[in-house]
Amino acid sequence: MKRLYWTNPDIYETEVELTVIDDNQVIIDPIIFHPNEGGQPADTGTIGSAKVINIETVSGRIIHTLDKALADGKYPACVNIAQRRNSAGSHTAQHIISSAATRLFGLKTSGVHIGLETNTIDFDKLIDWSQIQKIEQMAMAIVSENIVIETLFDKPENADSRFDLSGIETGMIRIVKIGDYDANACCGAHVARTGDIGIIRIIDSEKRKDGCRITYVAGGKALEFSQVETATLKELRKLYKCSTAELASLIVKSMDNARQLNKQVDQLQASMLPGLVDSAEIIAIDGHNIGILSDNISPRHIMKLAGMLAEKINGSSIIISDTNIAINSQTSKARAIFTRIQQTINCKGGGSDTAINGKLEKPTTIQSIKQILAK
Ligand SMILES: [Zn+2]
User: Which of 137, 190, 259, 266 is the most exposed place for a label (fewest CB within 10 A)?
Assistant: First the structure.
């Protein structure tokens, strides 16, 4: 079977001879759709009036699954051009990045994933961000040269490949050549010239075992990503009144300030706890004192405040802070009080008969709590 996209990557529409294998599963000749293999997602498109919903290589045959049955015969087949250009551009970008990484730093590609949004390449060694930027620069230089992507055929033993090609072809192997930069056995769909990729952006990296994984985007997806980044940076520059280069240090400074302020608020609130205890409203239910307090106090202090209040009145206490609730009881009634509140207000929490820490579905008032307890 002839894979048309190997030798004619710009043909997206042609007549195919269709043979039914089983129900909605068919094979076609020539093969115009790229299957799900080699880390590159399957194409989508149509054959006649049927949509192609899955394409897989099974025992050397490329099986197309359609959304409805067709009879044997000749049909027009159309590839979803936007999706193909996206995956072929991303895949060709991978050849270029892998090649640049080898040339610059002797890295070997140990894994590849081409996605519909972002793509990853795994390298056998760890490199830093400045090295990644050099790889990105060389990749863009190769794109700018607008080199023709050639397909050659050779014997498998002569081919160097980053992929497991077992079960895909026998006898002859397809070599993808990008000028003097890369010659690698590969079964994927590529663009016709490196310039067709447009943009390659390496957007992230992480350590993986002894090596690293880089995440990159290409073509239209790279433009989309860069536009989101630019808009975000523009907004941040406006907020911090600084240049892009100054942003990181200003954000770190701002986070340090926030931590210091939180510490001061914490200390201040801790010193206010005895005063808050005195301001609680005390009600008596069946001779049992319950202190109720609603204040915008930090969740870090709420349990302590509940304990101080219950101890002072030798009864139970309920502290509300936004949607946080803490219940303490000197008389082991905390769980019973919480259960009673839960019968009216949706809330979750846990603890013991002496102390409960919970979360209300929405903020509530002292008045509401009093009404629930009075029932
Ligand atoms: Zn390839």
Answer: 259
pLDDT digits (tens, 9 = 90+) for 240-268: 999 999 999 999 999 999 999 999 998 99
pLDDT in tens, 163-210: 555 545 556 788 899 999 989 888 889 999 999 999 999 999 999 988
User: Ligand 1 center to residue 370 CA distance, Å?
Assistant: 71
Please compute Rg for the chain using Cα positions: 33
Gap from CA of 150 to ligand 1 centroid (Å): 11
325 contacts 319 by C-beta, under 8 angstroms: yes
Ligand 1 mean position, distance from CA 80 (Å): 19
Nearest CA to 198 among 215, 176, 216, 223? 223
Q: In order of start, what are the domains of the chain with their CATH numbers? A: 4-79 (2.40.30.130), 84-237 (3.30.980.10), 279-374 (3.10.310.40)
> In this structure, which amino acid lies at residue 247?
L
Q: Is the dihedral angle over the CA atoms 321, 323, 324, 326 positive or is it negative?
A: positive
Preceding omega of 363 cis (within 30 degrees of 0): no
Q: Which amino acid is at 152?
A: L
Q: pTM score, two decimals?
A: 0.74
Centre of ligand 1 to C-alpha 295, Å, is 63
